[in-house]
Amino acid sequence: MLVKYRYHWRVMARNMDKRRKLTRSTGVTLDLPVFDYLCELAQRDERDRSYCINRIIRDHAERAGTPLPSPYPTERSA
Q1: What pLDDT digit, counting tens, does each position of 42-76 carry?
Q2: What predicted TM-score, i.e. pTM, was given to this entire model?
Q3: Using an 8 Å Cβ cutoff, are 38 and 52 in contact?
Q4: How far apart are the first and last CA of the chain?
Q5: How many CB atoms lie within 10 A of CB 75?
């Protein structure tokens, strides 16, 4: 039973990897007024700061004519 559970967990983990967002952690230094605005924006939209930064950059890229691909990996059909 434990082996089946472990196998099942491994299969679930492998399937979850297909849906996991493709991300990288970065450190950035922001001017204090920019940081304060970011915190206000995140609180108002009930999102985290990372989400807000990603949304701002994606919006900017789209306006500049370079839409960015989805952060979620696509499943390849066999």
Answers
A1: 999 999 999 999 999 999 999 999 999 988 777 65
A2: 0.65
A3: yes
A4: 32
A5: 9
